[in-house]
Each structure stands twice: as C-alpha cells, then as structure tokens.
Please model this.
Amino acid sequence: MFVGARRARPCSLRCTTIASMSKTAHLDLPIRFGTVGTPLSTPKSGGSAGGVQRIRELSLSALELAWVQSVRISDEACAKIRAAAEEHDVAISVHAPYYINLNADAESWATGRERLLAAARAGYKAGATDIVFHPGSYMKATPADAYRVSRDRLAEVTDTLRAEGINVILRPETMGKSAMLGTLEEVIAWSQEVENVLPCVDFAHLHARAGDGSFNTYEEFTAALRQIAEGLGERGLKQMHIHFSGIAYTAKGEKHHLNLAEADIDYKAFFRALADMGVVGRVLCETPNLEEDAVLMQNTYRQAWAKAVRKAAQG
Model:
C-alpha cells in the first residue's frame, strides 16, 4: 500500500442516491463545489453540456472541463456548454492538456504554448473563466532560473490572450513532486508578477510533495492560506481555485489520487481551515469517485462554515 492510503471503508453512497444526500442550495455558501471532469453519473449521451446539468442536479455548482489530453471541441459544442452553464448557474473552468512545460526547450515550448492558448480560446467560448494547467518541471535548470523563464513565457501567453480579447484567468497549479515546477511560493510569485494569473492550489499535491506525510494539519492549512493572503492581498482568498482529493505518495511525492475514505488526508481539518479563514471561490474534486466525494466535501464544508458563522456572531 502506498503512503497516504488507508484501507477503504465500505462506501455508503451510490451515484443514484447522491442528489438526495446533498440537501443544500449551492448559492448559500461562499464556495462553489464541483468536479474535475464530467460527473460519472452523467448519462452517456449528455456530453459536457449534460455534465453541467448533472452538476446542478447534484446541488453542486462548478465544473472543470478536463481537456487534459487535447483540445478537440467544436464551436457548437462550446456554445452548448456555455448555454447550459448559464441556465443552471454552474461556474466553468478548464483543465488544459498535461503536456505543457513553461520551462521546456524552445521547440517544445512552442507546442505547449499552442496547447495552452487553445485551451483558453475554446474554454472562453464555453463560458470558462479560469484555465488550470500544470506548469512543467525544472529540467536541468535551477529553480530560480526555471522560475524566470516560466514567468516570462507565462506573461507572453497572457499578453496574447489579452490582445485577442479573451478574458480568462490562467491558473498554474501547485504540483505533487519536488522535481516539478509549482511550489506554493512559485504560483504566488507568478500571480504577483503576471497580470491575469492566479494560483490553482491543489492541497493534496502539497501534502504529497514532501513525501513525508507533512502538510496535513489545520495549522499547516491555515498557514498556507495566510501565505496566500499575504502574497496576493484580498483577492488571494476571495478568488480561490482549489483542487482537492485523497492522494497516494512515496518519498518522491505524488503517485495517484485516492477517494477520501481511502486516504490519510485530514479533509475535515482542511474544510474547517477554509471556513475559518473566510475563503471564497471554488473547490473541484479529483477523487476517482468524483461527485460522491464532491458532495461529501460540500457537506463537510457546510458544517464547518455554519460553526464559523456562529462563532463570529458570538463575538
């Protein structure tokens, strides 16, 4: 068994009953919850637009389109996604293809740049406001040199999108292996230096990155949130885009995502930290069972948020 995994408990939720388990209207919470990828319980004929509708049926309110292999979608399909999102009040984001490296050689970067631009262009047509991507690896460069190259290339992409009138936020994601670009410090610094860039903070990746089981307490979660607030000001915690899941890891970092019931990540402490720190934004679930854990996350957060509100009212 990988570090980060624990013996699975029998699952009490089934896709056919998830909607009845999520009893809250989504707009009464400061955070929208959803999935990275179309919910597993979406009818096969539904496509991404059907996934948007299914998200709303589950009382969730965000969907990240998982264009992780390539961007192959027609303008007509994008229009259907946008219309469904507007009808059902579902916030849309895009996960761009994995094969992007801000620190690659010139030839590889030219290809990766086009992948990132394609995701942003199509995503904007589909109603996406945020484009998440993996920033790449250090290769043989020092972290400082890799950061500078990546910053300049990220600025190049945002300049292109701005010139084309594509109004999206690019979200470099925190990564789960020490060989990868994407420390919390790096994504904050890119966001400070490049316009229209903000972090996608994957807290499971941060838990796995060191490979020693650290970054898994309420105190560590709140310290990271304070670091974001100090680096980015009010927008840091009021426009958050979060990925969350259980995760298996080794001494070298992330192995793969796990369902919450199978993982060692302290998700209750995490959602208490979000509530206590007044975070506003989105949480997208990346566990294998997707919507089942997305509903669990929303319900766990709702309990923590209610306690935080009561505490604040009491002075």
